[in-house]
Amino acid sequence: MGKPRDANRVALDGAWDLARKDELTALFDGLKMDGDATIDLRGVTYADSTVLAALAGLAQRFKGITITLFRPPPQILRLLKLVEFEKLFKIVDDD
């Protein structure tokens, strides 16, 4: 389940796919984006192209704002690097 932590931070937990697209969209729409933002991915167990598309859309909507993808699990980190998301986001994969 996704949980807002504050106006500029969202934590995602569990598996994220097309079935949860509306929930993901609502979480991202709830970001205030009046400063740097963080998407906490450490609880994600699965992510498909739905998540990639939502993240790419977020990066497009909020150009100029640093969006950090925080601690993606190894399999998610590989996916993010494969699609070169380090060009769109700050990816922090350690404490």
Describe the structure.
- This protein has 95 residues and is α/β, with parallel strands linked by helices.
- 33% of the residues lie in helices and 32% in strands.
- The protein contains 3 helices and 5 strands; from the N terminus they run ββαβαβαβ.
- The protein has helices at 21-29, 49-61, 74-82, and strands at residues 3-6, 9-16, 37-47, 67-70, 90-92.
- A 5-stranded mixed β-sheet has the order 1-2-3-4-5, covered by helices on one side.
- The radius of gyration is 12 Å and the shape is globular.
- The protein starts with a strand and ends with a strand.
Q: Main β-sheet, in a few words?
A: 5 strands, mixed
Shape estimate: globular
Instruction: Pick out the low-confidence regions.
Output: none
Strand order of the largest sheet: 1-2-3-4-5
Layout of helices and strands:
Layout: E1 3-6, E2 9-16, H1 21-29, E3 37-47, H2 49-61, E4 67-70, H3 74-82, E5 90-92
Parallel strand pairs: 2-3, 3-4, 4-5
Antiparallel strand pairs: 1-2
Task: Provide a brief overview of the structure.
Helix 1 (21-29) runs parallel beside helix 2.
What attributes does this structure have?
5-stranded mixed beta sheet; 3 helices
